[in-house]
Design a protein that fits this description.
Helix content: 40-55%
Largest sheet: none
Strand content: under 5%
Number of strands: 0
Distance between the termini: 21 Å
Number of domains: 1
Shape: elongated
Radius of gyration: 14 Å
Order of helices and strands: HH
Length: about 70
């Protein structure tokens, strides 16, 4: 995990101002990583190489971290 904040809830539940239920939904970091994976997966051949999957996951979360850092600027 990185030292960058997770961005909070990607799709917060309406309620009292400033009060969200973190147990529902995903973080913005997870959402960004999932979008990156979905975009990057176009044209990839599915194969059974756990090392390759770990590299894809690492890349997606590094990209998500970069997006969150850019939002802080």
């Amino acid at each position: 995990m990185s030292d960058i904040k997770d961005g909070g809830n990607a799709f917060p539940i309406a309620g009292e101002p400033g009060q969200f239920a973190p147990e529902f939904g995903m973080t913005l970091r997870d959402y960004f990583a999932a979008k990156m994976l979905a975009d990057w997966n176009h044209g990839l051949v599915v194969c059974d190489h756990p090392d390759l999957y770990a590299r894809f996951a690492d890349h997606c979360y590094r990209m998500a971290d970069a997006m969150l850092k850019a939002r802080e600027a």
